[in-house]
Write a structure and sequence with these properties.
Distance between the termini: 60 Å
Low-confidence stretches: none
CATH topology of the largest domain: Aspartate Aminotransferase, domain 2
Largest sheet: 7 strands, mixed
Number of domains: 3
Radius of gyration: 24 Å
Order of helices and strands: HHHHHEHHEHEHEHEEEHHEEHEEH
Strand order of the largest sheet: 1-7-6-5-4-2-3
Mean pLDDT: 94
Strand content: 5-15%
Number of helices: 14
CATH superfamily of the largest domain: Type I PLP-dependent aspartate aminotransferase-like (Major domain)
Length: 487
């Protein structure tokens, strides 16, 4: 056991083993970063055949285990930093975020109680205070870091549900759901994130509780249809528990009219949750911050930092406007957040989170803000939005490409347009272009649908990518399309 040095501790032997393992891993990453390919191009079947586990009774030791991880994981990983990797909301990470991960992993703090994460707890609370100020919320620390958008959206919907029942004098926490649940509805746009339906099912209200509101030509929620859907719900004897607005839809990057939605909701005392997992990056923007006007009116907000804040996965946050609503999910356990601790002013963040054990992901954002400063952070966020506008103009000028929609954030929806072919043929051709580029290992282009028609997507999060890089990618799309068309 001692020869393997398995546990990180303060002994000289353990520290030496740690340094060796980190150095070996770091050198492997450096070599991987230098490889020119975006992806080695192995298929699902090839990877399944290639990857085998070797759990021996004696163990391989640290060095051999790292070598196997490099061979079977690292070499066949997608290079998200590659200029031709633009399929998803999957960002390259800040160097400082990588450094933060070393500190997070080595210290292994758990954010559920102060005595497991003393300095980390205070840093996270102060960062939540700062984020609330960026949104325009009142001073306070009602909020918590999360694993990402789906969890943050779940917290918003759960508190909206419990506040809805509390107004009727019923505690869901104490007594569970009650009444005719089929009459309780949540409204969101046709382009809202799938986690709205997923979370409503998880909360026992089902997909049927979600009413979809029509969107305009730019995939934004249609406020007139929202008003009509609210009127229809009332006429049908239904009660609207919450409206989920989106600030940055997954494909189009659309931002719903937040202030108008909040005004309609206020008339009927309806909770508004804004999923700003992507668009929330504009809180730091110098050019586009006004896109988020009205965000401060929401009852709760989702933010993600592993998108256009360029942090490593995972790193998100949930912000709650009125701290009193946290009482709806409050639970006390003597071993974590006792009455005595509360009386003494000891902050135990488990009271604010759906998770118990939780990583100190807030450190990554804190170090990023300190290292870059607000101005440089704003520049790399704005770069993607500006680049998308430039790319859209270029696409519109290409005879074999068709711009599907003017960009709003950092994504461009377009399609390869053959000289002839019906809609189904064009859709299949664009799907095959995306598949062929990934299979070749040269590029990763998104494949999605806009108005029911298959198209391609560029998600331009990488601040090192310029218009010339994208032109190279688009030339590959055209060449691939022509080859497939001729075949």
């Amino acid at each position: 056991m001692s020869d393997l040095n398995p546990i990180l501790s303060g002994s000289a032997q353990s520290i030496a083993a740690y340094q060796e393992a980190i150095e070996q891993s770091t050198q492997a990453v450096v070599q991987w970063l230098k490889q020119p390919e975006m992806y080695q191009g192995k298929t699902v079947a090839e990877l399944r055949e290639r990857i085998n586990l070797e759990f021996t009774s004696q163990g391989l030791g640290n060095q051999a285990a790292i070598e196997r991880a490099v061979e079977y994981f690292l070499k066949d990983s997608l290079s998200v930093h590659h200029p031709q990797c633009v399929a998803h909301l999957h960002c390259p990470s800040l160097v400082i975020s990588q450094a933060a991960e070393v500190l997070i992993n080595a210290t292994n703090q758990s954010m559920d109680s102060w005595d497991q994460s003393p300095s980390a707890t205070i840093i996270e609370m102060k960062l939540i205070e700062w984020l609330r100020a960026q949104v325009g919320y009142p001073a306070g620390d009602a909020g918590v870091f999360t694993s990402g958008g789906t969890q943050s959206n779940l917290m918003g919907l759960m508190l909206a549900r419990d506040a809805f029942f509390a107004r009727q004098g019923h505690s869901v926490q104490q007594h569970g759901l009650t009444g005719n649940l089929s009459k309780i509805k949540v409204l969101c746009s046709e382009n809202a994130h799938f986690s709205v339906q997923k979370n409503m099912a998880l909360m026992g209200l089902g997909y049927q509780s979600v009413t979809l509101v029509k969107t305009d030509a730019f995939s934004r929620m249609d406020v007139n249809d929202l008003a009509q859907k609210l009127a229809e719900a009332k006429a049908n004897g239904e009660q609207v528990m919450a409206i989920v607005a989106t600030a940055g839809t997954t494909d189009a990057g659309a931002i719903d009219p937040l202030a108008d939605i909040a005004a309609l909701a206020a008339e009927q005392q309806i909770w508004v949750h804004v999923d700003a997992a992507w668009g929330g990056a504009l809180l730091l923007s110098e050019k586009y911050r006004h896109f988020l006007n009205g965000l401060e009116l929401a009852d709760s907000v989702t933010l993600d930092f592993h998108k256009q804040f360029f942090q490593t996965i995972s790193c998100g946050a949930f912000l709650l406007k009125d701290a009193r609503h946290y009482q709806l999910m409050r639970y006390q356990a003597a071993y974590l957040n006792s009455d005595f601790d509360e009386e003494q002013g000891v902050p135990n963040l488990v009271s604010k989170s759906l998770q118990t054990t939780r990583r100190f992901d807030a450190l990554k954002l804190w170090m990023g803000l300190e290292a870059l400063g607000k101005k440089q952070y704003a520049e790399i966020i704005d770069n993607g939005v500006t680049l998308a506008q430039q790319v859209a103009q270029f696409v519109a000028e290409q005879p074999q490409l068709e711009l599907v929609m003017q960009p709003q954030l950092a994504s461009v929806l377009f399609r390869f347009r053959p000289e002839k072919g019906d809609t189904a043929r064009v859709a299949l051709l664009n799907q095959r272009i995306g598949d062929a580029l990934l299979a070749s290992g040269s590029a990763n282009v998104g494949v999605t649908e806009a108005d029911g028609v298959t198209c391609l997507k560029l998600t331009l999060l990488n601040p090192t990518v310029c218009l010339e890089d994208v032109k190279v990618l688009l030339a590959s799309v055209v060449a691939c399309g022509q080859q497939l068309q001729n075949a």
